[in-house]
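Task 17 of the worksheet. Students: predict the tertiary structure of the chain below and write it out as structure tokens. Keep your answer in the requested format; marks are given for formatting as well as content.
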Amino acid sequence: MTTLEQHTQWDREHCWHPFTQMAEYEPLVIERAEGVWLYDTSGKRYLDGISSMWCNLVGHHHPQIDAAIHLQLDKLAHATTLGLANVPAIELARRLAELAPGDLSHVFFSSDGSSAIEAALKIAFQYWRQCESPRPEKKRFVALGEAYHGDTLGSASVGGIDRFNAIFQPLLFDVLRLRCPAVGPRADAKFYLAELESLLQKQHEEIAALIIEPCIQAAAGMVFHPPGYLRGVRELTARYDVLMIADEIVTGCGRLGPLFACEIENVIPDLLCLGKSLTGGYLPLSATIATPRIYQAFLGDTASGRAFRHGHTYAGNPLGAAAALATLNVLTSDEVQQRLPKQILNLAGMLAHLETQPHVAATRQLGMIAAVELTPSADKNERYPQAERIGHKVCRAALHKGLWLRPLGDTLVIMPPLSISDEELDFVGQVLAESIAEITNRR
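Model answer:
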């Protein structure tokens, strides 16, 4: 039998972990999970405070999702969707068309969030070459500063975080970049919308699409946009005939309260991308959902060359689609929807308590997504030197107390599964408070 020591050694020797400096990596091998809890190979448990990288939506080992996957496994594990269809993918496409805002109704499946964004960019580019009134000069994209949309070359190109992309810059295409519309001294949406309109006035004839993470730029440090910004972006892109791509890979599937962040400001994008939570964190599956206007431009006979020649081997995988259907059923159930408002209030209360700590500069919350900013002094605008890695140290302290978190610099992210109980949420708040005090007082 393989021992814990062997797994740890093999992990160090053979597994190359993403976004991880392997020279400093400290193995933590997870063997099983239940609800909001992860269990390592020694039996110690950790509350999954970030939903296993923002994707485990309704808890680990959920009976309904487990049952759906088992049932589908007895029928069909995989069949290509290149010229074939399968029942779960058809039913999932129909369900997403019913749930998505407005007339978003045509679903293109991929394997992960980056791939969903890649598809959206290529769809937008190709659309302008074969729509009713072709505009081949429209081939540029607008993206926000500090945006994150994935790691493939296209999705990285529209990303704007240097620590992720700088080394690959020679491989990436150029985009038109707007300032990150952060809530702060210039919190008024009008300021940032004026900047967008100025850009569109000058260059809209060459712009294919604008891409945006609605309401929250997650990897930027959970940066919240000022109210009205999303709505203004939609109005301006529509006015200047620029497509709008909504990246809801983090904000979609109910984490903010509504099923989609776009619903908060009654926005209907031209393309909407989902991933991460779509299958409840069980299996890799993502979706790019288009309006009929976009879809119709790709129809014609074979000789027309209008088909979207892009796809992935596991797109629309039956097991992933079955998991996604079960996840959506759990998410939209009365049980989850009736509990969610109280959970959001409880999280707000926990954040209010954390804000009383001397080394917490600020907290932010939208639905069940929250962030905690750290500060070394009473000056709430001061930040720790980056080299001190205070956020990392706080998360390591929390890990020793049974809470798993992964920071964004010195921003602590809280995004637990929606199945978290009041007592478990209290545990998160208690451990965070203790860990922040422990590390900041030691400095």
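Marker's comment: The first strand starts at residue 30 and ends at 34. Residues 66-331 form a domain with the Aspartate Aminotransferase; domain 2 fold (CATH 3.40.640.10).
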